[in-house]
């Protein structure tokens, strides 16, 4: 039995029609299901958890963007139920769907339901983000599956939420409307210079050293810090071609200032690849990416807390964080690749 979770009020209610079509397709493919509408204020997580504790479902389908995926995945993990997660991507960025070869275009819905019916299952790691208080005590914790971000991207996200009407009238920001924030090209660089005041911070990072100890490093003058799990960022950027969402590791990607934001975006964009020698000739330099099964992050911003986002949604700010990767936390239905059964 499937549980379909989606937001019927999304896109000013226009999502109702797409949900209705999805349910028709589920019936056509003999995928029995119930429907659970998303709830505001993060309440979807508890609603999914409660539904799964009934023991009625073996599959949950997240229909929406990365935020819906996160809430459904969190509900699964909080419930402790042995269920499989499927997805019907919609929205703008959809890093989860794109990372596994699934389109969010309206005409892809039929194919995505076929993927659910074919039931090809792979493991997916999860991240547990813990906000730390005095003396390292855990204040709260939340699951994520795509990325956690600290600094400018989270601040822009807050501004977007505070004034969506303004965002809708800025051509560049319309392209960045959901989930993540893309930094690319001279036009956007000029936009950032005009509208966003850089607020940098230092970060002390602890990771395992591979020999049972702890490696420590200090990242200085950081404007944005991203912890990444899946392949795509903002729907079109791949920061690390070797990254895997099922290896028990996540990538820590530091960004220093507008220049590195633009450089990272240009180098990582799937449609405008730049080779290493071209990047050197252009004077583009990047801060190294760290990869680990856990990170301890302590922000040093002269007493101010650094804003945070989790899978494209606002998250409480903090000065200290611990990220733990839970390997193969989720069983995920994805399209089979050539040669796979």
What features would you describe in this structure?
The protein is α+β, with helices and mostly antiparallel strands. The protein has two domains: 2-90, Probable inorganic polyphosphate/atp-NAD kinase, domain 1 (Rossmann fold, 3-Layer(aba) Sandwich); 127-327, Tumour Suppressor Smad4 (Sandwich), CATH 2.60.200. It is 30% helix and 32% strand. It is built from eleven helices and 16 strands. The protein has helices spanning 15-28, 44-53, 66-79, 95-99, 109-118, 152-162, 164-167, 171-175, 185-195, 257-268, 276-281, and strands at 2-6, 33-37, 59-64, 84-89, 121-132, 138-144, 147-151, 201-208, 214-222, 224-228, 250-255, 290-292, 294-300, 306-310, 313-318, 320-333. The strands form two sheets. Strands 1, 2, 3, 4, 5, 6, 8, 9, 13 and 16 form a ten-stranded mixed sheet that branches. Helix 1 packs parallel to helix 5 (109-118), helix 2 packs across helix 3 (66-79) and helix 9 (185-195) packs antiparallel against helix 10. The longest helix is centred in the first third of the chain and has 14 residues, at 15-28. The two termini are 23 Å apart. 42% of the residues are buried. The model is unreliable at 165-191 (pLDDT under 50).
């Amino acid at each position: 039995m499937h549980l379909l979770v989606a937001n019927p009020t999304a896109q000013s209610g226009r999502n109702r029609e797409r949900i209705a079509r999805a349910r028709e397709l589920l019936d056509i493919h003999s995928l029995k299901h119930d429907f659970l509408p998303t709830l505001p204020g993060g309440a979807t997580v508890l609603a999914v958890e409660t539904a799964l504790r009934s023991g009625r479902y073996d599959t949950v389908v997240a229909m929406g963007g990365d935020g819906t995926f996160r809430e459904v995945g969190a509900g699964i993990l909080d419930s402790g139920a042995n269920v499989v997660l499927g997805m019907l991507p919609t929205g703008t960025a959809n890093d989860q769907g794109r990372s596994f070869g699934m389109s969010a275009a309206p005409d892809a819905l039929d194919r995505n339901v076929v993927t659910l019916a074919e039931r090809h299952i792979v493991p997916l790691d999860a991240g547990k983000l813990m906000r730390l208080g005095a003396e390292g005590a855990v204040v709260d914790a939340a699951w994520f599956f795509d990325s956690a971000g600290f600094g400018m991207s989270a601040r822009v996200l807050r501004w977007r939420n505070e004034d969506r009407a303004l965002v809708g009238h800025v051509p560049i920001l319309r392209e960045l409307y959901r989930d993540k924030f893309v930094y690319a090209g001279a036009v956007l660089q000029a936009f950032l210079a005009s509208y966003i005041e850089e607020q940098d911070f230092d970060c002390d990072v602890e990771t395992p050293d591979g020999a049972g100890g702890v490696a420590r490093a200090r990242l200085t003058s950081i404007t944005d810090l991203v912890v990444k799990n899946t392949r795509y960022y903002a729907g079109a950027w791949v920061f690390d071609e070797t990254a895997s969402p099922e290896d028990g590791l996540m990538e820590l990607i530091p960004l220093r200032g507008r220049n590195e934001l633009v450089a990272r975006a240009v180098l990582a964009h799937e449609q405008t690849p730049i080779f290493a020698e071209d990047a050197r000739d252009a004077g583009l330099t990047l801060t190294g990416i760290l990869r680990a099964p856990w990170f301890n992050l302590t922000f040093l911003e002269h007493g101010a807390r650094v804003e945070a986002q989790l899978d494209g949604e606002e998250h409480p700010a903090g000065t200290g964080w611990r990220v733990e990767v839970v390997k193969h936390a989720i069983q995920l239905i994805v399209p089979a690749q050539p040669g796979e059964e």
